[in-house]
Structures are given as structure tokens and as C-alpha cells.
Amino acid sequence: MSRLESLQPPLPTEVHKGAWAKFDFQTDECLSLTRHLDDAACTASFLWDTWVPPHTKLLIARELNGNQHLAKKVVVFLAAGHDIGKHSSAFAAKVPSLKQHMERHGASFVNFNKHEAQSMPHGVVSAASFREWIANRGIPLNKNLSDEIAAIVGGHHGVFPPLAQVVQNPALKRDSRSHWGKDRFHYWDRAALTAQLSHDDYLALSQCAFSAPVQMILCGILIMADWISSNRELFPLTDDRDSNLRAELAFESLKFHEHWNPQEITDLLSLFASSFTLPDEAKPRPVQTTAMEIAHTADEPCLLLIEAPTGEGKTEAALAAAEILASRFSLSGVTIALPTCATSDAMLPRMLAWLSRRLPANSHADTVLSHGKAQFNEHYQSLFKPFKNGYSAIYDSETSTNVTFRPNSWFTGRKTSTLADFTLGTIDQVLFAALRSKHLVLRHLGFANKVIILDEVHAADAYMTVYLERCLTWFGALGVPVVALSATLPPQRRAGLLQAYRRGALSSKSIKYDDEQHASDCAMWSAESGYPLISCVTATTSELKVLAPSGRTQNFLIEYLGFETELLAHRIADEARFGGCIGVVCSTVDRAQSIYKDLLTLLDDDTELVLLHSRFLGFERRRIEKGLVERLGRNSSKRPHKLVVVSTQIIEQSMDIDFDLIFSDIAPIDLIFQRAGRLHRHERPNNERPARHQSARLIIAGCSEPTTDATPRIDNGSAAVYGKSILLRTLSTLLTHGKHVQSPTDVSPLVRATYDPQHEFFRTWTTDGLAADEEAEKIRKDQCERANDYLLPEPDSRPVWSKRKGGTLEAREETRGRAQVRDIEDSLEVILVRKNGTTFEVLPCSPKRAGEEIHFAHGIDDELAKTLAQSTVSLPSWVLRGKQGNQLFDSLEEDVFTADEVAALSRNKWLRGQLFIPLDLNNCANVAGLTIVYRQETGLHVSKNASPEIG
């Protein structure tokens, strides 16, 4: 039962002295401290009984000898005492009228200066007073548990305070020596009675300790209880109803849905057939069958790492395995993370289709798309629109199910999205779980209840890998299964991911992962050379399974075009005359735009030309990507006869498209295979591919053809993006192997040889190769060191406020989180508008409200504001460096709008904080010494001190 029948009567006046917790300066309404503590305690009780997922309860109870009843008491106790620190001189004096009221009831205020008052926020006071109460009342808690509970209480505003601020705080000690300290003891007595903590409970607790993961989870539940009970619409400041009724009505209003409860899986083939739309008589491929079998026999939560070629059905394998793992370990959600917003958007329909086939009929699934552009995804936004008698229902005629995906509004916030059962977003959203940031505990609370699917983990560089591995360690400690997918991984990277998860899984069992075992594991996991490969690791077991070929093989020929840039466009045009669909993958946007410009004059009139890169307006890029998938996808009936697509690396990420021929700038060997996965990807009748392209070829540009005579030359753009070391290693490996490549047979050996720490260059390459390796190692170490600046410490049993390697667990603001979990230079998105004389207009190419006048100072309607917010484009990173960047920011912030327009923009939820660049009627602008041009065909061009040539 959720109601707290043990709620205590208010404290006597001589103790509470009119203490308050909430105040509204507009209405002068006030909420007493005891009422807010009761509201929070009742909310915590309702949360435990109606929302806290089963796996989360088990995690907490596991550290209380399996006693879930005691676990609930602890949760209620934390909520009943979290704000006791508001009964202090520093907090109670914040409202003069309430201070006077408390003085009339016997309060005697200690005078603090501003610095002293700031040193004792009420969370710190709550933590300190809890420790003092334990000692004063002689309660038999061990010191570790006392500190762990104090840390949880102190962290209920999202930041765990440093221990020194709690125990060595002169101002706080002065406050505690007055009547305030003794009064707070009575509040803690009341909290313990509210939670019904008995002497036997204290004795049981004295034998326990909370690990860091459980401290994080408990703090997350406490924050949820505090946020809900602090919502003035749900808990008005003036209300005579008791806290039990207030909480009951609040939860009726919140309408939290039942969690997903996946049923036990007994028939794997039936599971797969009912999860996906398959051709008649189709059977799961080996990678899919094996992934399900391993998940089905797992006795402990595990990391399942799947390495297989593109097109093998890794996504379907991951989703099926996730449902099996969820059913085995009482989990009730799934998180899917991909490299980019675009790849996440492409996954959304597939995820919803899978859920519609697997969830019970007429059920509701809280589903959140969690990336920075989610508000512009039309498919996702449609989930919020009324549909018949409900919201966002998806009807699948094959399964006769009607599933509603509209997410509960409480789970759509930036800091609460991970609490929804089903989330889909960029890898950043998962990596934030290892970034010291405010309210981090809510992410851990959300992830603790899910299976995590990480797609394309090979895309993580050294910097991101630091965060990825730390996330895996925490997931291991939380008992969260992870399914990670990759086309292929270097052996050392595979070993690093597996050992990171095992380290956390062992910590959950209080087993140290010693150096000898670590070295033995890494040697074993690195040695496996089979492919495709599924690796599975738990705390106590590991298994690496080399899979039988699915029968799907790919043979392609590698050719080299040469270093000279001008050769590339001419060769593309020559090949295009034979017909077919040709892909061109360039290392940089500038190079892609340049090649596109050259091809405009070289291609035959009947050859279509498309350009795709990251410097298109958001709606333009989505339109281009959608068109490519529709025309080059598996079941397309609109496949062009003559098409050239010039792109950057975007094209290699989660786009199910098929080219007859691919040109690629030199790239690391694993990305070469990734791009080759778009080459003859789908089975097609012979007459659909031109005779010239019946055999698959991948033509490498941006470097001279490798020979044993001399080190090959490499284009500066490719070297800047990937580093010269890995490109020389790739060319060395390919030269040794030869030009004929077969997947999957050759994938693992070639990747292994390229990334081998002892890789040997040809004698004539040695000097250049070793110098490049040395530079690469220097960059790698620098990335790792910088990543560690904001890295969450490893989980252990100490209080989460403890000082550890890397500093205390202070917060880092999440607004800069992307720059901290990805090693990218500062980037800047700006909104483009047109300026016609003194009038601003929507861009003519906008899909909505094109050319419409914009009157910023008078305020603009919501649809227009949203339209403008979608007209964003990224500036190249070089314009943000040094003096140039400062001049650009100053110009965009000071010279574009009047004061009235700036004030109006600051009040608009879509546009506040955004920077605008007004283009003239020729779509050009001169800003801070830069010439900026936008063309619908080619995207954004930026040059310094001169107008760029644009075709």
C-alpha cells in the first residue's frame, strides 16, 4: 500500500518555530517544512510502490541482505529528512517576513556574512545534521553507511558536496551549537518514525553498506520525490488535505504508466519471426541466432559485443537479444544509442515497428527521442498528436496490436528523458553517464532499469572511448546488460570494452579485478582473430564465438586513383558515362563541395548529381538523406540509371543504400570496410547493374598509389581528419594483402594487421611511419588526459563525496557536455534568415513560411519560431578560433538585432540564446571579415576576406 499510515503529527512549536520550506514572493503563500517533508515522504512511498522498477528495487535490496521492505523504509526516510537543513539560520533568513515570524516563535538567528551563508546550503546542512544525529542518538550505524546516507541527502540538488564542506565548516558548526542543531535532531527523529525504522532495522543497517551505484540510484529516487512534491500544481502551498491524499492525487494526475514487463522467452525462432517482418521461409542468420542463444543462457548480466559485416542484421540481433536479457533480469526498458542525430532519426521507425510487434495489445510505452534535434523530427512529434481516441497509436495489421507511444510529459525533460522505458538518441546521451554533471544520478537511475544497445561503437575515438569504457564499468556494476555493435573492431579496442564491463561487474560482487587477471583477459580477448565474432563477458565468465558464414560474401577490388585532386572529378565522370549509381566519400566538406563543382561541368546531361554533407540546413539534409534511402534502398522501385552522390562520412553511417561503384578518400581500414558495405550491398538482377560495374570496385583517392619504393603521399584533409599514422598503416596493410578483398574472410586479419602495435612498415616507409606513430601516440595520450578531467570515478563502496583520483564528484554543467564527451573543436550553429532592406524574411528555400516577413520585436507565432529554429547550419570550426572567433561572436551578438528585438527573442522558447546571420538577396553575408554564402545545391561556404567561387 502506498499510503504512509505512519505519518507523524507536527513538531511542537518550541521545536519547529514556524520553520518553512517553500515561499511564493508574488502571493506571500508559504509551505511549512514539516508539510514539505511529509509530502516528499508520501511521494517517495508512492514512487516505490507504483514506479520504481523491479530491477532497481533488487539492486537496492541486494545491499540490505535482500530486504526490500527495509529498502523502502530507507527511501522514505531519505525523503522525510532531505530538507531538514532548511531549518537553519542561513536558509530561514532568506525571507524577512518569515524570519520575523520564526523569531516570534522562539528562533534566535546566528548572523552570517554572505560568504558564510553561501558555504552552508541546506543540502550540506541536512548531510551534516544527519551525521550529528546518528552520533547524538547513539544509533548503531557504521561510519561508512552514515557517510553514504549523508552524501545522498547532501546531493539531492544534483551535486554531491565535498566532505570537507560538511565536516569542516566553521559557519555550520556555529549554527549547530545554537538551538538549530538540537531542533534538527527532532526533525530526524520524526523522519525515522515516519519511515518506521526500528531498533532491529538499525541493527540490520549496521551490517550493510551502499556501493556507489546504489548511492547514485537512491539519490536519483530522492530527487524524483523532491521534484514531484515541489511541483506547486500538484502540491499547492496552501492546501488543507493531508500529505497522503496530496500524493495520491498527484500520482493520479501524473499518470505514470506500467513498466514494460517482458515475458519469459522459450522459443527463439518464434520470437524472431514475431519481432520483424521477414520474407517467406526466411530464417535468422547465424549472428542473429547466436546472439539470441547467448542471451538466453546468460546467468548474469553481460556485455554482448557483436562484430559482423554491414547487412548481416546486427540491429535485429540486438533488439531480439535485448528482449531476452530484459526478461531474464527483470528489466523494463531499452536504450538505443547511435553516432549522430541523423542515424538516430533513421532508427526511430524501426524501433517503433519492433515495439509495436512485441508489446502487448493496447499497451502504452513511454518512448523518448533524446537528442538536441528531437523537436524537429516529424515522426517523433507525431507521437504527441491526438490519434482517434488516444495518442500516437501504431497499428500493425500483421500482429493486430495497438500500441501507444506518446511519452509521459514528465519524461520529456532534458534531465528526465532517460527515465522513460524506451529511449533512442545519440551516443552522447549514454556517455553523459560517465561525465561529472549536475543531476547525473537521474541518468543512472534511468539506465539501471534498461538493456543498453550501442550501435557503431567503432566510431568512438580515443577521447570518446575513455567515457565509453567508464560507462561500461558503471553498467557492469549496476547489473545492466549491454549489446554493442560494430562492423569490426581493432583487437585492443575489443579487449578494452570487455574488460571495462567486467571490472564493473566484479565490483558489484566486491571482487577486485587484479592486474594479473586483467592482463590474462586482455591477452585472450585480443588474440581471437575469427570473424564474424560475438564476445560475451560477465563478472565470472567470458565467451568468444566465431560464427559460421551466413552465405553472404562480398568480393571487391581496390584501385588507387592517385594523389592529384584534379584526377578525381575526371575519373568519376568517366565512370559515370557507363551508367549506374556511384558514391563518392570525401574526408572534408570543402573537398566534397569542390568535387561537386567540378562535376557540374564534367558529367553528361543525363547524369544526376547529388551533394550531401553536414553544412546544409537541417531540413535540406533530411530531405537529401530521405531521398537517397528511398531511391537506393533495398526495395526501391525508383533506382536511378545514372546518379553520382558526393558526400562526406555521413554516407557510411546507418544508411541502408547500395552503390554500383564507390570512390573513397583514403581512410582507416575499418572505415574502408564500412564504406565497402554500401558497395553492391543488396542482391539485384544482373541487368540492374551496368556491365562496367558488374564487379564491385572501391577506388581510393587522396593518396598516391602505395609501392614499396617510397612512403605514399596523403592528402592534407584526410591526414587532418584521421591522422597520418593510421592512414599509412592502412596503405601498408592493403599493399601487403593485394587489391582483391573478400568480406568477411579478410576483415579481421586486415584490421588486426593495421592496428597491431608492432606493425612493421616497409623499409622505405620506416622513418615516416614511425614518426607518424609517435605523433599519433602523443595525440592519443593528450585525448585521454583531457577526457579524464571530467570523468566520473570508477564505482566502489566509498561515499560518493569522497576525494578520488580525478577530484571530487563536483558537477560540470551539461550544456557543454557534448564538447566534453566528444573530442571536437567548439562548433556553432546559427540560424540563417534573409534581410531585404530593413526587413527580415524566412529563407525562400524553407519548406514552411518561405519568404514571409519576420517582425521579431513584435513577437512571432510559435510555428514561425519553430520554422526559424529549423533553419540552422553549422559553421566550420576554423572560424571560431582565437581573435576571429571573438570578432564573430561580438558581431552576431551586437550588430544583428535592435534591443527590442533581442528582448523579444529572449522570451521565445524556440529562439532564445540563438545567433542569427542575415543573408542578402544573393544569399551572402559579410560578417567579422568573413564572407558567408548559402546555396541550396551546395550548402554553406565560408571564406576569409574574399568571396568564394561558387558554381
From TrEMBL:
Classification lineage: Bacteria, Bacillati, Actinomycetota, Actinomycetes, Mycobacteriales
PANTHER family: CRISPR-ASSOCIATED ENDONUCLEASE_HELICASE CAS3, DEAD-BOX ATP-DEPENDENT RNA HELICASE 47, MITOCHONDRIAL
Organism: Corynebacterium felinum
Entry keyword set: Antiviral defense, ATP-binding, Endonuclease, Helicase, Hydrolase, Metal-binding, Nuclease, Nucleotide-binding
An example Gene Ontology molecular-function term: endonuclease activity
Enzyme's top EC category: hydrolase
SMART domains assigned to the protein according to its UniProt record, in alphabetical order: DEXDc
Protein name: CRISPR-associated endonuclease/helicase Cas3
Source taxon at top rank: Bacteria
Family: In the N-terminal section; belongs to the CRISPR-associated nuclease Cas3-HD family. In the central section; belongs to the CRISPR-associated helicase Cas3 family.
